[in-house]
Structure formats: structure tokens, C-alpha cells
Amino acid sequence: MLRRFSVLLTCVFLISACGSSDSPETQVRRAIDAMEKAAEARDVSDLMEFVADDFRDQYGQDRDQLRQYLMGYFIANQSIHLLTRIDELELPGPDEALVRMTIGMVGREADAANAWNLAADVQDFEITLRREDDDWKVMYAKRGSR
User: Fold this and answer.
1) DSSP of the chain, one letter per residue?
2) What pTM, to 2 d.p., does this model score?
3) Options 3.20.20.30, 3.40.1370.10, 3.10.450.50, 2.60.120.1440; CATH of 22-143
4) What does the pLDDT look like over 33-74, one tens digit per residue?
5) Which GO terms label this protein's molecular function in UniProt (predicted)?
């Protein structure tokens, strides 16, 4: 009787473990959604939580330079709205993701005299994310041409 109970308990544990974890693709998509929300909230700290310590962009800029850029962008744009589309998502390994995405950025310039002064831009990006513990963090970003 005890043996059947242990087998049953083991089966329940295995089934619940399989059902509770999201696929890496779902986790990456969730991380990108959270990054979008942090950017729209103009929250540099929350956004930087998704950036790896060894981050680099195509120009060799590091994490601190990205933080400075974001602070300036958020000051210049008092209202930010993003439209994101994941064009391609590859998982070359269990802890790495390559994402090609298009981001439409609409921000209001910090010009109080002209409330209709909108800045709009559509950019393609290629980003590489790495899983660190249970979090997906951007380790490389490249802005594409449009």
C-alpha cells in the first residue's frame, strides 16, 4: 500500500512539474512583454533588470551607457507608446534566445509649448537573450536598418 502511494505521489509530482513550467519561448515572450511595459512606464530600473551585466550593443556600448541613453530618452519623451512584433524567435540552446523584432515607438517630445509634437520611429532589432537563473536578460542588441 505504501509503495502504491509513493508511486502515485511521484506521478503527481512529475505531472505537476511538467505542467507548471513554461516553455523557454513563452518565457522569452513574457520577458519581452515586461520590457515593453517597463519602457512605456519610463522606468529605467525595471527595464535594466532585463539587461545582463556584460551587455554590449553593436557599437560596443555597455550596460551603463545603455542606462544613460534610456534616462535621456525618457526625459526627452514624456509619453512613450510601443508596438512590438516578434518577427522571429530562435532557441539555439536551452539558455539562449535570438529574437528579431520590429518596434514602433511613439513618444511625445518634451516641448510643453506644442502638445502635438510627436516623435514616431519604427526600428528593427536583433537581440540575444541569455537565461540567468530563472530570468531572461538581454546580452546583445543590434539595431537594424529600415
Assistant:
1) -HHHHHHHHHHHHHHHHHHHSPPHHHHHHHHHHHHHHHHHTT-HHHHHTTEEEEEEETT---HHHHHHHHHHHHHHEEEEEEEEEEEEEEEEETTEEEEEEEEEEEEEES-TT-TT-EEEEEEEEEEEEEEETTEEEEEEEEE---
2) 0.76
3) 3.10.450.50
4) 999 999 999 999 999 999 999 999 999 999 999 999 999 989
5) isomerase activity
